[in-house]
Design brief:
This protein is α/β, with parallel strands linked by helices and 373 residues long. It contains 15 helices and 13 strands. Helix 11 crosses helix 13. It is globular and about 65 Å long.
Length: 373
């Protein structure tokens, strides 16, 4: 799926074997590509999985039969617990790599990542930073560098590199990008349909519902279903609710739910679109940028200080769907601006999120080796 973990194959540049372990939830049997394997250690009871996670993880590490085992986790909430046996009893090094900024999500949704009270989750997050041996981020993650440098629990154990495997799409994405032709039609006919695309999970924290309000504003401004369409690539628990919202706002006839798409197929969808729209930009923004797609996004989270309004993206105030609609209309009407944004954001993407950047950083950056020493 779009959110698959195969970008971790880039870690094969560092290790003989790479394992992606699912500790919570039951997934299909082991899947393998190259020297990377996706393995499920969870069951069907989330809280039971959480309770047993430290022992399951330790057993798996022990079965590998080598002391050269490192645990890299993006879990800021429970890693202090799930990794404690591996860290305390087996003396393995724990590297914490944050991929979201919790406080931003608390402000948006008024609920925590885990479903626990926010005050309790804050304590868990702080303790996860405390228990980690290393906190790792990259300049390719934008605002994450400033956030972690200002975090007392993380700053003294922080390692910053230019690139990182999590910042680079899968090899399959780049292989497909090299042969996928662009089929964008915007600008060839003033009355042609403009294809907007969102890529990501359909989950409450992603604020996807704002895009439906954006479509309502576009409709009110005279953009019919034959002029503007929104394509949603991705799946998730909120899809049914979003379908209901689309009907309520009377935009369901101009919204297409595509469902999950494999990462190596994503260039076909991006290059066949005209404008990338995203309230909460994740890894898909990097993929859209590598395709040279003009971006309309909320000015928030990790893109602050990384993207420049009017130069590499159209940035609008957070939660302002009307402003997002106005930015889309401006791009539809201004071809030179569209072209400029597409060129500039692709140039930025090639500097930050390309394979060449990652491999060059792998050769020249000695600081990353400190993680594994």
């Amino acid at each position: 799926e779009k959110g698959n973990g195969w970008y971790v194959r880039h870690y094969e540049q560092y290790f003989d074997e790479v394992y992606v372990l699912y500790l919570l939830g039951h997934y299909p049997n082991e899947v393998r590509q190259g020297e990377t394997r996706l393995v499920s250690l969870g069951g069907r009871n989330r809280w039971g999985d959480l309770l047993l996670a430290p022992w399951r993880l330790a057993r798996f590490a022990r079965e590998l039969g080598t002391n050269s085992v490192f645990l890299l986790t993006a879990d800021m909430v429970f890693s202090w617990w799930t990794a404690w046996w591996v860290k305390r009893k087996m003396r393995r090094k724990i590297v914490l790599l944050p991929v979201c900024i919790p406080e931003q999500l608390y402000q948006d949704n008024k609920i925590s990542l885990s479903g626990m009270p926010i005050w309790l989750e804050r304590l868990f997050v702080r303790y996860s930073f405390y228990c980690a041996d290393v906190v790792h981020t990259a300049r390719a993650f934008g605002m994450f560098v400033d956030w972690l440098q200002g975090n007392p629990s993380a700053s003294h154990k922080l390692i910053i590199t230019n690139s990182i495997p999590e910042a680079v799409p899968s090899g399959g994405f780049f292989d497909r990008l090299a042969v996928s032709p662009s089929t964008s039609q915007l600008g060839s006919d003033p009355e042609s349909v403009t294809k907007l695309i969102y890529v990501g999970r359909l989950h409450h924290e992603k604020l996807v519902g704002d895009l439906f309000h954006m479509m309502r504003f576009l409709s009110d401004c005279g953009f019919t279903k034959d002029r503007v369409r929104l394509c949603l690539v991705g799946g998730g628990e909120e899809q049914e609710a979003l379908e209901g919202l689309a009907k309520e706002l009377q935009v369901d006839d101009r919204v297409d739910f595509i469902g999950p798409v494999k990462n190596e197929q994503l260039p076909d969808y991006l290059l066949g679109s005209d404008i990338f729209v995203s309230p909460l930009t994740g890894s898909s923004l990097r993929e859209a940028a590598l395709c040279g797609l003009p971006v309309v996004a909320y000015d928030r989270d990790w893109v602050q200080g990384l993207l420049e309004d009017g130069k590499t993206a159209m940035l609008v105030p957070s939660r302002d769907a009307k402003a997002m609609a106005e930015a889309v209309m401006r791009l539809i009407e201004d071809k030179s601006l569209r072209d400029q944004l597409g060129v500039q954001v692709r140039r930025l993407a090639e500097d930050l999120w390309s394979l060449n950047n990652f491999y060059e950083d792998r050769k020249t950056s000695a600081s990353l080796e400190r993680i594994w020493d």
